[in-house]
Design brief:
mainly alpha, Hydantoin permease, 77% helix
Length: 338
């Protein structure tokens, strides 16, 4: 039970902690100053949403997200959000691939090397279908999370930062709503694909509240660190590198590798959501559809990593607010409909 719960927890975190989040760019886009309460609300909202999505997915024993989506938003709106989820997954996976290119550029390599490496790695990963993704998450994410927490706490201690000194300043609390909304749509897609593999409600509780607690804690420490270097963030495509410049080159190399794996896990989750959804329409193998999907994405990476995040993330955050509302009140309206 515990092992299975942790497996799904790492899948949730791996889906969420991609290029935008791990690099700090997404956190800075929504939070920044006076956001402590917003991050606390995000952790609670996120846990509730994951719990509801997994519960519905488990109930339907689903293998893709459409049955889950119908339960959450209703049959009428499910067609609109079905299309929206598809384009969301497609565009955010493009962001991840572009993020791999940006990581390569930080070391003076061509972005095309970074893009080629992640595309090849994704194809190799999905030769084992979904099991390859689950195995990788359990192996990579503990190291990634541990490294990120270590660097952020080290920076907090070195800069003598006070984690709770501005707790009375919380005017940005409303940011919790679009930020949570932004992150739940891919979870519907990914968790909707594993409903037939979830065995108990205990797994759901461990996965949902564990992921919310971890992401909330990291978000708070990360955001607090970014506030201290706010003037420098404009100079960096990836804000994390503004923190890492204070430390030896070996740490920069290690965290860059970890950042790439964060990008990779989210890109893999996006591809999983897309391919499990379209597989019923095409009489082709899973790996073939993965290859075609990735080839269609590559030309769009020329827009640039930070531009993609600043352009599409706020739009999706607003459009997803209805889904967030339905998820948060799901236990109430679900009982009323029975």
């Amino acid at each position: 039970m515990l092992r299975a719960g942790l497996k799904w927890m790492f899948l949730i975190i791996g889906t969420t902690i991609g290029a935008g989040y791990a690099s700090g760019r997404e956190l800075w886009q929504f939070f920044g100053h006076e956001s402590g309460l917003a991050i606390l609300l995000f952790a609670v909202f996120f846990s509730i949403c994951c719990m509801v999505i997994m519960y519905v997915s488990h109930k339907h024993e689903s293998t893709h997200y459409l049955p889950v989506l119908r339960d959450i938003v209703g049959k009428r709106l499910s067609k609109f959000y079905d299309v929206m989820i598809f384009f969301y997954l497609f565009s955010t996976t493009v962001v991840m691939i572009a993020g791999s290119g940006a990581t390569g550029q930080a070391f003076n390599f061509s972005k095309w090397w970074g893009i080629a490496i992640i595309v090849i790695a994704l194809v190799l990963l999905f030769m084992k279908n979904i099991n390859g993704l689950l195995s990788m998450n359990q192996l990579i994410l503990p190291v990634l999370l541990g490294g990120l927490i270590f660097i952020l706490l080290l920076f907090t201690i070195d800069q003598e930062l006070e984690l709770f000194s501005h707790w009375h300043e919380q005017r940005n609390w409303t940011a919790a709503f679009p930020f949570t909304a932004l992150n739940i749509l891919p979870l519907i897609a990914v968790l909707g694909a594993i409903g037939d593999k979830v065995k108990s409600k205990s797994e759901i509780l461990i996965a949902s509240w564990g992921s919310g607690l971890i992401l909330g804690g990291i978000s708070f420490i990360y955001n607090n660190s970014l506030i201290q270097i706010a003037d420098e963030i404009l100079l960096y495509e990836i804000p994390l590198f503004a923190i890492l410049k204070h430390y030896p080159f070996e740490i920069l190399i290690f965290m860059s590798i970890m950042l790439w794996f964060a990008i990779f896990t989210t890109a893999a989750a996006g591809v999983l959501g897309i391919v499990t959804r379209i597989q019923e329409y095409f009489n082709q193998s899973f790996v073939f559809l993965v290859v075609i999907t990735l080839l269609l994405m590559i030309p769009l990476t020329t827009i640039g990593f930070s531009q993609l995040i600043s352009l599409i993330y706020p739009i999706y955050g607003i459009l997803n607010l209805y889904v967030l509302t339905r998820l948060l009140i799901f236990p109430l309206w679900n009982k009323l409909e029975k």
